[in-house]
């Protein structure tokens, strides 16, 4: 419990620092392989003309995702978490120290693939987005309701596979609304860019 | 580190208890939605005629998976982990106390969906199986190599979607072999029962 309180305090420090520098930050969470990097790749592609963007990515050891995003020419910071299955406010604080916050106005943080711990570890980001995929099955929201409770936007991805999976995306949307009626739910095919503009609108970026 | 040592000690106790009672236990791990319950459902369907089976399932709060397996008429124990994203030896010890070990000879343990923590938390099971799905993308093994290092069997599931995902299952198999040349890799479509007999052979159950 002390661990979570210490994390909350640091998250608040991060939040104040980002606000002072006029940087909007978004914490992007979701299961392993749900489509977080693909979504960020699409967002950066659409926004880099009018926003000054940096991307943080939390991974155990590899830099595969960071390399994909770096090709856009935006600033990226790889956060290697070692054995941790979630990012925390301290890791983000250290990553913030590596960049010139005056040179950016939008920070996208890709969390470690996990629908459990990230719910408890605030990072100091202003908005929280959760990506789920229809390929994870029909009960994914019901089984992990906590992380959806304070999500601003929920993206239901890989809609191209909903039929093959026999998963009803409308039902998943209802499950989200049941847990958090304020969340904006966007049905998407991130790989093909379907739904990206709606995500941008819902985040107000 | 003390936490892991304490867990190893308890796992060893579980292992001895299971061995004394002649119960084979298998720890089934994998991402959220990779197909662990579907695999267990198929295994139980094939084996319940000749083995006396019990199934443990670790979930945050719901009993959805346990209910699916219980329909087979085999003994099931739901382990609610609350906020933990992995099972540990202590939770398994408590679950073992709830069943008559003399009445079973095979225990299937479905771990919480996660490819990170379960690698460090041995449960005392004799064999470890990891289920991955082609829908999680092409880099899933490379990004999470630790959990594959001491897996006996790795099931690459949802092969029916490999083409739609543009993911090469042979490449995933190579990634597994690269990390652990002793692991048996089985390509499967668990939903339709494809590959289940090969899984049974590789586990020797
Ligand atoms: N069919 C389909 N595949 C998609 C879609 N979006 C992403 N993918 C694929 O899903 C796989 C995983 O996508 P990523 O974007 O790497 O997922 P991630 O959430 O960043 O994964 P981790 O960082 O490893 O947790 C890749 O093979 C993508 O090409 C989609 O809309 N439809
Ligand atoms: N297309 C396809 N879908 C599958 C296959 N195997 C399982 N599924 C589907 O994948 C979804 C998740 O399967 P589960 O067996 O519940 O996965 P799990 O790993 O137990 O999930 P959690 O316990 O929630 O972590 C369900 O909708 C299944 O029907 C398969 O071989 N092909
Ligand atoms: Mg990623
Ligand atoms: Mg399951
Ligand atoms: Zn964690
Ligand atoms: Zn964990």
SSE arrangement:
The structure is a homodimer of 205-residue chains.
Chain A: H1 2-20, E1 24-30, H2 36-47, E2 53-59, H3 64-70, E3 75-80, H4 89-96, E4 106-110, E5 127-133, H5 140-143, H6 145-149, E6 153-157, H7 162-165, H8 169-179, E7 184-187, H9 196-203
Helix pairs in contact in A: 1-4
The complex binds guanosine-5'-triphosphate (2 copies), magnesium ion (2 copies) and zinc ion (ZN) (2 copies).
Summary?
With 205 residues, chain A is α/β, with parallel strands linked by helices. In chain A, 38% of the residues lie in helices and 20% in strands. Chain A has a single domain (2-203), classed as Rossmann fold.
Main sheet strand line-up of chain A: 3-2-4-1-5-6-7
Query: Strand content of the residues of chain A, in percent?
Result: 15-25%
List the secondary-structure elements of chain A in sequence, H or E: HEHEHEHEEHHEHHEH
Bound molecules: guanosine-5'-triphosphate, magnesium ion, zinc ion
Q: Tell me, what's the shape of chain A?
A: globular
Number of domains of chain A: 1
Average predicted local confidence, pLDDT of chain A:
97
Give your account of this protein's structure:
The structure is a homodimer of 205-residue chains. Chain A contains nine helices and seven strands. Chain A is globular and about 45 Å long. Chain A has one domain (2-203): P-loop containing nucleotide triphosphate hydrolases (Rossmann fold), CATH 3.40.50.300. Chain A has 205 residues and is of the alpha/beta class. The complex binds guanosine-5'-triphosphate (2 copies), magnesium ion (MG) (2 copies) and zinc ion (ZN) (2 copies). One zinc ion is lined by residues 84-86, 114, 117 of chain B. Residues 84-86, 114, 117 of chain B line the site of one zinc ion (ZN).
């Amino acid at each position: 419990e002390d661990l979570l309180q210490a994390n909350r305090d640091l998250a608040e420090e991060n939040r104040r620092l980002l606000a002072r520098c006029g940087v909007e930050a978004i914490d992007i969470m979701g299961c392993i392989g749900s489509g977080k990097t693909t979504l960020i790749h699409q967002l950066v592609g659409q926004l880099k003309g009018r926003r000054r963007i940096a991307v943080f990515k939390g991974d155990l050891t590899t830099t595969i995702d960071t390399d994909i995003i770096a090709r856009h020419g935006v600033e990226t910071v790889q956060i290697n978490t070692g054995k941790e299955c979630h990012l925390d406010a301290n890791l983000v604080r250290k990553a913030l120290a590596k960049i010139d916050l005056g040179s950016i106005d939008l920070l996208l943080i890709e969390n470690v693939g996990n629908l459990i711990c990230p719910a408890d570890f605030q990072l100091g980001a202003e908005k929280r987005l959760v990506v789920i995929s229809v390929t994870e099955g029909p009960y994914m929201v019901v089984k992990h309701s906590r992380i959806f409770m304070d999500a601003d936007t929920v993206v239901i991805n890989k809609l191209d596979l909903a039929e093959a999976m026999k998963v009803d995306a409308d039902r998943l949307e209802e499950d989200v609304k049941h847990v958090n009626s304020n969340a904006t739910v966007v049905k998407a095919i991130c790989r093909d860019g379907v739904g990206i503009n709606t995500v941008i609108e819902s985040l107000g970026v």
